[in-house]
Backbone:
């Protein structure tokens, strides 16, 4: 992914595991305003304040521009794109919660 690949906008990545964090980091490093959503408050706080995911990507520095939140509505507000990168067992629940925000 390069900065010129995507049109300007914002991206919400739902799922702060290793895959979601890696995708969010890549997007943020390439200039896309990116918000990462997850359920684990300690992980989200570490991503948002210390710019690393100690549970799923230890030792990898994340871009300071990457924003993280446990609030689903906050994560998707104003987003042009939404990537759902949660584990299969949480997919239905996450999609229902997302639909309820409409």
Residues:
């Amino acid at each position: 992914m390069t900065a010129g690949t995507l049109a300007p906008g914002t991206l919400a990545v739902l799922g702060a595991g290793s895959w979601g964090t890696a995708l969010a980091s890549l997007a943020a490093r390439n200039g896309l305003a990116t918000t990462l959503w997850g359920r684990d408050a300690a992980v989200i706080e570490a991503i948002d304040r210390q710019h690393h995911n100690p549970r799923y990507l230890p030792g990898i520095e994340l871009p300071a521009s990457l924003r993280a939140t446990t609030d689903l509505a906050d994560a998707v507000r104003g987003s042009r794109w939404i990537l759902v990168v949660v584990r299969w067992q949480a997919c239905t629940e996450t999609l229902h919660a997302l639909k309820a925000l409409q």
Residues 10-88 form a domain with the Rossmann fold fold (CATH 3.40.50.720). The beta strands are 10-14, 33-37, 52-53, 57-61, 67-69, 81-84. The radius of gyration is 13 Å.
